[in-house]
Design a protein that fits this description.
238 residues, alpha+beta, Glycosyltransferase, five-stranded mixed beta sheet, binds cobalamin, transport, signal, cobalamin binding
Length: 238
């Protein structure tokens, strides 16, 4: 996002010649760094950060000459089913159309032919039966009474989201599990677990992981655990 902002400042001549040259040099370094860190799978970071990175090549008009961009586009097209929420789709669509957010400034929406028709959200396929997920809550902070605050099996309908699993755990009266979420543009954000609130000022958050230690790439409402999986909610720092 910062790289896009730099390009905007330079392109719109909002800065003097000296700073413009520095911004161009910074953009060059950013692109070189992104090419260096591109994974074997073609992604810059993960599937959700890749469209952002592609927008930088688009905005700086380097996408045609940069092979890394072509590899990223191929990887993105192979993984379109990962974009299930409005927020992630909004980040991928410009890149898929070869546009960056900077193009929005000159987009004439009034000239749109208004031919878009809303479609109902595609519901995930119905899965019958039940599953059991192990839910673990970890607090590695020094002030926590113990590192592991909760460890219980939670039965839930097969195909349920992690949010459904948390609700099922809370409904299991015997285990005293509680949680809270906050609505954000990306969907519900897990803000409090077992009465412990993650605090912005302390740069702490409830990280979602699948055992042994893979950080999830989706939020509680989108991630659908499998039968037998162990999910960890860990109070972490960013
Ligand atoms: C900064 C950031 C964070 C910070 C936010 C705190 C802060 N004060 O800055 C922290 C480290 C806490 C964070 C956590 C997580 N994040 Co995050 N985060 C981002 C990032 C880089 C920028 C968001 C932002 O500032 N937007 C600009 C502001 C103005 O908009 P905003 O709507 O107010 O932003 C808020 C929400 O986005 C919210 N938020 C941040 N991440 C997430 C993730 C989810 C699922 C939800 C519902 C909300 C949310 O915090 C922001 C600040 O308050 C985005 C990347 C991106 N391209 O959007 C990833 C991103 C949104 N995060 C992502 C993920 C996966 C997570 C986690 C689920 C990771 C994990 N395994 O635990 C957790 C959320 C867990 C939970 N408790 O629910 C993914 C979401 C992908 C998806 N499929 O939806 C993104 C797109 C990164 C990526 N490429 O994988 N994140």
């Amino acid at each position: 996002v910062a790289a896009l902002a730099f390009t905007c400042l330079e392109r719109e001549r909002l800065v003097g010649a000296g700073l413009a040259a520095e911004l161009r040099a910074a953009m060059h370094r950013v692109r070189r760094r992104m090419v260096e860190v591109q994974g074997q799978d073609g992604f810059f970071g993960n599937v959700y950060s890749t469209p952002w990175a592609m927008q930088v090549f688009i905005a700086t008009k380097t996408c045609r000459t940069q092979p890394a961009y072509g590899r990223a586009m191929a990887a993105l097209l192979e993984n379109l089913d990962a974009f299930t929420t409005a927020a992630t789709m909004a980040q991928a669509l410009p890149a898929l159309h070869g546009r960056s957010y900077l193009d929005l400034a000159t987009t004439q929406c009034r000239e749109e032919p208004d031919t878009l028709t809303p479609i109902g959200p595609e519901l995930p396929p119905e899965v019958s039966g039940n599953m059991t997920v192990r839910l673990v809550v970890e607090c590695p902070e020094r002030w926590c009474p113990q590192r592991q605050l909760y460890d219980q099996p939670v039965p839930a309908p097969a195909g349920a989201s992690l949010l459904d699993v948390l609700r099922a755990a809370a409904a299991q009266g015997s285990s005293n599990f509680t949680f809270d979420t906050q609505e954000t543009s990306q969907g519900p954000f897990l803000s409090r677990v077992l009465g412990l609130e993650a605090r912005q000022q302390k740069r702490s958050y409830w990280q979602l992981l699948t055992a042994p230690s893979t950080s999830l790439q989706m939020g509680v409402a989108d991630y659908r655990p499998s039968d037998g999986e162990t999910l960890i909610l860990r109070l972490s720092r960013w």
